[in-house]
From TrEMBL:
SUPFAM superfamilies to which the protein is assigned, alphabetical: 6-phosphogluconate dehydrogenase C-terminal domain-like (SSF48179), NAD(P)-binding Rossmann-fold domains (SSF51735), UDP-glucose/GDP-mannose dehydrogenase C-terminal domain (SSF52413)
Record SMART domains: UDPG_MGDP_dh_C (SM00984)
Enzyme class: oxidoreductase
UniProt protein name: Udp-glucose dehydrogenase
Segments forming a coiled coil: none
GO biological process assignments: polysaccharide biosynthetic process
Organism expressing this protein natively: hydrocarbon metagenome
NAD found in the keyword field: yes
Gene3D superfamilies in the record: NAD(P)-binding Rossmann-like Domain
InterPro entries (alphabetical): 6-PGluconate_DH-like_C_sf (IPR008927), NAD(P)-bd_dom_sf (IPR036291), UDP-Glc/GDP-Man (IPR017476), UDP-Glc/GDP-Man_DH_C (IPR014027), UDP-Glc/GDP-Man_DH_C_sf (IPR036220), UDP-Glc/GDP-Man_DH_dimer (IPR014026), UDP-Glc/GDP-Man_DH_N (IPR001732), UDP_ManNAc/GlcNAc_DH (IPR028359)
Keywords, ordered alphabetically: NAD, Oxidoreductase
Stated family: Belongs to the UDP-glucose/GDP-mannose dehydrogenase family.
NCBIfam families attached to this UniProt entry: NDP-sugDHase (TIGR03026)
Length: 455
């Protein structure tokens, strides 16, 4: 079997290599010459665990080109960005890719769309583009197989996750399901194309709405005088409750975008767009917390720790850090950023000591494991404030160094400066209480040592 994969990015390349290591001849096609050159010179254009080894194993059956070639199966894995101004999906790449396949398409060939698209796209947009070949949908096969792999675990998830595959017709569904069985070890669920498109978007919308709820809980907790992290841990002990974590907003190219794809043709959906609004407003809320920590501090400087959209990745697409920095700078704060994972960012990235030197508030925006290990004693700030929006830091160490620690969603009663920490905190003796901070301390608790009994 010969497979031609259009788009050799985070999804297309691993998929192409998995087919090639399972006995298929694969032509990978990407419009970017640099991607094709890199692969033909034996280098993968981006990092992903296991990808280099897979590439070595696949090279005998894999070639890269800038134009597609005739094949039995065509796979489309091109970008589907969101137009930021209109919040409408940009399907230009999908349309072009289908247009490139049309002149090569023959009866009984299969085309699979893997890109994430609004419901109906396979039938309404891709099928007519492909029919420009002169062959009709039904004569050629067409299916949607949405990708749900998580960056950092892409290869494992591509093989072991279950898949939903939806065809234009029954023959397409069954043929596409058989195709993926070549390397997929997870279950394959067969449906129609529009349902497959819908399911993929529903999954990420579900997560977005759940995070929005957690973010509202965080804000309510502050009003009610409760610690949301402990409250969520307790609520999640209920067998039918599973609340996600709050945070500084939602980023990445899926969860922050897919709800818009799902609702772009609807005039009814209020909850989904409201959840987007809540999550998009979290950077404003984080800034509001900082304002309260820094009343009267002139020419204040903020050190942002972690600009990636989530922990332990280098991905800054749609990261809430971007909006936070824009808002903070617009308000006159001097913002300096540190993120040891990220190589390219819209704003300069500095070493930790330079980002924090002279700062008036350190704000943790990404839950990178390495941030937990920062030694507060080694940091030369001007004003000792720490705002943790992810609930990851070892608060005791920071408090002992005299930092005022603020945790997103922690509204539990604040204590007078330097007093009584030991009564709420695990094992701090009064003599170890920090010198009186400018703002009272709100119940810092080290990660993993949340106490449930105090509620
Ligand atoms: N990356 C993920 O983890 C992930 C997860 C689930 C779904 N998706 C979806 O998968 C699709 C692909 O995402 P990605 O992350 O791989 O994108 P990407 O940007 O990493 O790669 C896409 C590649 O397609 C190439 N391309 C664009 N037009 C082309 C054309 N006409 N012919 C050939 N190549 C072309 C680009 O040059 C680029 O290299 C998107 O719809 C995305 O939403 C991605």
């Amino acid at each position: 079997m010969k497979i031609c994969v259009l788009g050799l990015g985070y999804i297309g390349l691993p998929t192409a290599l998995l087919f090639a290591t399972h006995g298929c001849d694969v032509v990978g096609c990407d419009v970017k010459q640099s991607v094709v050159d890199s692969l033909n010179n034996g280098k993968i254009p981006f990092d992903e665990p296991g990808l280099s080894d897979l590439f070595i194993g696949a090279r005998r059956r894999f070639t890269a080109k800038t134009v597609p070639e005739p094949a039995d199966v065509f796979l489309i894995a091109v970008p589907t960005p969101l137009d930021p101004a209109t919040k409408v999906s940009d399907l230009t790449y999908v349309r072009k890719a289908a247009g490139m396949i049309a002149p090569l398409l023959e009866r009984d060939d299969l085309v699979v769309l893997e890109s994430t698209v609004p419901p109906g796209t396979t039938e309404r947009l891709v099928a007519p583009q492909l029919e420009k070949s002169g062959v009709r949908a039904g004569e050629f096969m067409l299916a949607h197989c949405p990708e749900r792999a998580l960056p950092g675990r892409t290869l494992h998830e591509m093989v072991y996750n279950s898949r939903v595959i939806g065809g234009y017709d029954r023959r397409s569904t069954e043929y596409a399901a058989d195709l993926y069985r070549i390397f997929v070890r997870g279950e394959i669920h067969e449906t129609d194309a529009k349902t497959a498109e819908f399911v993929k978007l529903m999954e990420n919308t579900y997560r977005d709405v759940s995070i929005a709820l957690a973010n509202e809980f965080a804000q309510l907790s502050e009003e009610c005088g409760v610690n949301v992290w402990s409250a969520i841990a307790l609520a999640n002990k209920h067998p039918r409750v599973s609340i996600l974590n709050p945070g500084p907003g939602v980023g990445g190219h899926c969860i922050a975008i897919d709800p818009w794809f799902l609702t772009e043709n609807s005039t009814r959906c209020k909850m989904i767009s409201m959840a987007r609004e809540i999550n998009d407003s979290m950077p404003n809320y984080v800034l509001h917390l900082i304002r309260r920590l820094l009343p009267g501090v002139k020419d204040a400087s903020i050190a942002v720790l972690g600009v990636a959209y989530k922990g332990n990745v280098d991905d800054t697409r749609e990261s809430p850090a971007i909006k936070f920095i824009q808002l903070a700078e617009n308000e006159g704060y001097d913002v300096r950023c540190y993120d040891p994972y990220v190589k390219d960012f819209l704003y300069p990235l500095l070493p930790l000591d330079e980002a924090t030197a002279g700062s008036d508030c350190i704000v943790v925006l990404a839950d990178h494991d390495c941030l937990r290990r920062i030694d507060p004693a080694a940091i030369r700030v001007r004003t000792k404030n720490l705002l943790d929006t992810r609930h990851i830091m070892d608060y005791r160490r920071w408090v002992l160094e005299g930092f005022t620690v603020r945790i997103l969603g922690d509204g539990s009663p604040t204590l007078p400066p330097g007093e009584g920490i030991e009564s709420r905190e695990s094992g701090l003796s009064p003599s170890l209480s920090p010198p009186a901070p400018a703002v009272s301390i709100s119940l810092p608790r080290p990660p993993g040592q949340e106490r449930e009994d105090f509620l």
